[in-house]
Amino acid sequence: MTTPTQKHFTQESIDKAVRKRMMGSPVVIYTGVAATLAGMAAALFASPLTLGLAASGPVLLLAGWQIEKRLRSKGYSLQYLEEANRKLQEERTAKLSQLVEKLREVRSRQAIHQIKLLNQKFHNFQEILAEKFSVGELTYGRYLGIAEQVFLASLDNLERVYLALKSIATVDPAEEQGRLKELENQSSKTAAGEAETLRRRLKLRDEQIELVQHLLLQNEQAITEIDHVTAKVATVVTEKGQAELALDSAMEELRRLAERAQDYTHN
C-alpha cells in the first residue's frame, strides 16, 4: 500500500479493499473454479447431470461470496485499516526523527514547540479514542487514520518551515540594510545595480518569513482543532448510531484542515 491519504479512510475505499480481498479468498476462488468447470463440462458433455451442475454454478459462486462476506468482511476491513494506520505511523516516526534536528539547525523554537504539542495532543486523542471505542472497531481505525493525516500534514508544514528558513539562513538583514543605505548615497550605475540586488534579496527573505508564519499558523489551528475533537470524543455517547454521527460532525473540520494543508504543500 502506498502512503494512505484521507480517501483511504472513507467507507467507499474500505468496501473496495474488502471486495478485492474477498475476490482472492480461497472460498471464492474454489467456488468460482467449480462453477467454471461445471460450465465447461456442460459445454463438452451435454447431459442432465452436467447441465444441472452448470445451472448450479452461479448459485454456488454466489453462496461462496455470501459466506465469505458474512464470516470475513469485518476482519478484512480491520486488516485494511490496521495496515493503513501502520503505514502512516511508520511515516510519522521517520519524519519526526529527522525533523527535530533540522528545526534546531534553523533555530525555530516555535516549530520545535509545535512538534512537542502535536505529539502530546495526538497521543491524548488516541488514548481517549481507545477509551470510547475498542481498538478492534472500525470507528476507531477510521478516525485514528484521519487524525494521523492531520499530524502528517502538520509535519509536512514544518518540513517546509525548515526549507524556507534554510534558504535564507545566509541573509543577514541588518548587514544588508546597512549596505543598502551606503549604496543609496552613491550615484553610480554599479551602486544602483547592487542596491537593486540587495532589495530583491531582502524581499525574498520577507516572503519566506511570511510563508513560515502562515505555515505555523496553520499548525496552530490544527493543534486547537485536535483539542476540540478530543473533547468531543471524550463526551460522545457511545450508543449505536449516535457515536459515529457525532464523531463525523466533530472530525469534519480535521478533514478540512488536513486537506488544506496537503493542498498548500503541493502549490
What this model shows, in words?
Mean pLDDT is 75; it is low at 49-55. The protein starts with 10 loop residues before the first helix and ends with a helix. Helices cover 85% and strands 0% of the residues. By secondary structure, it is an all-alpha fold. The protein contains eight helices and no strands. Helix 1 (11-23) packs across helix 3 (48-105), helix 5 (138-167) runs parallel beside helix 8 (242-265) and helix 6 runs antiparallel to helix 7. The protein folds into two domains: 1-89, no CATH class; 106-267, no CATH class.
Fraction of residues in helix: over 70%
Helical/strand content category: mainly alpha
What overall form do the CA principal axes indicate? elongated
Number of helices: 8
State which percent range the strand residues make up: under 5%
What's the domain count?
A: 2
What are the low-pLDDT stretches, counting only 5+ consecutive residues below 50? 49-55
A few lines on this structure:
It contains 8 helices and no strands. By secondary structure, it is mainly alpha-helical. It folds into 2 domains: 89 residues, no CATH class; 162 residues, no CATH class.
Observed structural traits:
elongated, single chain, 267 residues, mainly alpha, 85% helix
